[in-house]
Amino acid sequence: MELAFRNARIVAGEEEFIGSLLVRDGEIAEVASGASTVGEDLEGDVLMPGVVDLHTDNLEKHYFPRPNIDWNPVSAAVTHDGCGLSVGVTTTYDSLSVGTYNASPARAEESLRRLVDGLLTAWRAGMLKGDHRIHWRCETTSDHLRERLDHLADHPMTAMISLMDHTPGQRQYRNVEKHTANWRANGMTDLAVEQRLAEARARQSRNAAPNRVYVAALAKERGLPLVSHDDEDEAHVEEAADLGATVSEFPVTIEAARKARERGMVIVMGGPNLIRGGSYSGNVRAAELAELGLLDAFASDYVPRSLIECAFRITAEPFGWSLPRAVALVTEAPARAAGLTDRGRIAPGRRADLVRVRPVDGMPVVRGVWVKGRRVA
Q1: What integer is the mean pLDDT of 167-184?
Q2: Range of the domain at 62
Q3: What is the rounded average pLDDT for all residues in the chain?
Q4: Which of 53, 59, 57, 5 is nearest to 28 (CA)?
């Protein structure tokens, strides 16, 4: 099967140009600059690689469309897939939590089992048009992490593992007063807040250190990329890198990001952080890291569309990045972090995962999406 495009603003590696592109049997066969009379006329729209999302919580939103209401998990997976494709995401790492740090029903064991079974059913039946993989978010403070991860790590869609610790008073929730104020706003008494804090800190004390070693060993044994989440200081980064982590995801301070750069880790920030102008937890802004040269990639976190917006937002002031450099933040860099060498860049021999985009008043509008040369959106 062949597919051709012409008059496209092609973002290919470190350069961009008006040219043409030929797809053959799901791969990019030829890329050329200049005029052509062959293929679909893209009218000068941007043609870029498909977006690679290393971390999205979006699947759970479709499984739990309202609090305490669960949807058919196969249907949720199909809807989630379509939503991602509509905003240019062609490779998705569905982030699912193993082990609980709060009472969220989306992370209860039975719900998690149904969700991953539904995702697998949809995947095996060919219902998913994009490429989906699972990123297990391992809550290292959990009393039940090991027994659950032993089973879940063998899931055929497992592709990435991360180390997490959401104990209030450090990392993402280092502003403990702000965090506990939310608890009080939801009706918890001062005594209940103190009890919950004490329980969380006790779990961290008995579980976090040995569980981190266990998770790192499991990732190494299976050849999976290991990610460290919400690093706060140099010690967090050093420990993670020594355990084999190659990605620092959502560091919460400049200090942690600098140490991650020193240790050769890929630094990933959340797309909503850039688009909203900062972290909802009050941590370091993605914009600050971009200005300091401490930003390698974005992940969508909880808004899939944030990725395509990040790629175009960062080309504007005050950043002024070139479009190829900006596009790499959501394509080539995350693909490299995941160990995917077949995508993330427009070049002969790569997968024909492609996105057509037209900026309208500064807003990127996705006008077409192809996965392995097949139109999916």
Answers
A1: 74
A2: 50-344
A3: 93
A4: 5
pTM beyond 0.90: the answer is yes
**Residue 369 is assigned to a structural domain of this protein:** no
pLDDT tens per residue across span 120-170: 999 999 999 999 999 999 999 988 899 889 889 999 999 999 999 987 767
Question: What angle (nearest 5°) sits at the alpha carbon of residue 102, between those of residues 99 and 106?
Answer: 70
C-alpha to C-alpha distances, 271 to 71, 278, 335, 375, nearest whole angstrom: 27, 10, 16, 26
CATH code assigned at 207? 3.20.20.140
Tell me which long-range contacts 245-252 makes (C-beta under 8 A, separation of at least 24).
Answer: 245/163, 245/216, 246/337, 247/54, 247/162, 247/337, 249/54, 249/55, 249/162, 249/299, 250/172, 250/283, 250/299, 250/301, 251/284, 251/289, 252/171, 252/172, 252/174, 252/279, 252/281, 252/283, 252/284
Kindly report which listed range (162-166, 246-250, 322-326) carries the lowest average pLDDT score: 162-166
Query: If we measure between CA atoms, which residue out of 140, 65, 67 comes closest to residue 97?
Result: 140
Contact 353, 49 (CB under 8 A): yes
Helix (H, G, I), strand (E, B) or coil at 170: coil
State the total domains in the chain. Answer: 1
Q: Answer whether residue 258 is part of any domain.
A: yes
- Is there a contact between 369 and 85 (Cβ–Cβ < 8 Å)? yes
How far is residue 166's CA from residue 290's CA, in Å, rounded to a whole number?
A: 25
Q: Does residue 298 lie within any of the structural domains?
A: yes
* pLDDT at res. 102: 56
**What digits encode the pLDDT tens for the residues 62-72?**
999 988 888 99
What does the alpha-carbon distance between residue 75 and residue 62 come to, in Å, rounded to a whole number? Answer: 8
Alpha-carbon torsion 326, 330, 335, 341, what sign? negative
Q: How confident is the model at residue 183 (pLDDT cuts 50, 70, 90)?
A: confident
> Quick one: average pLDDT of 11-21?
97
**Closest Cα partner for 103 from 37, 189, 230, 200?**
200
In a domain, 326, yes or no: yes
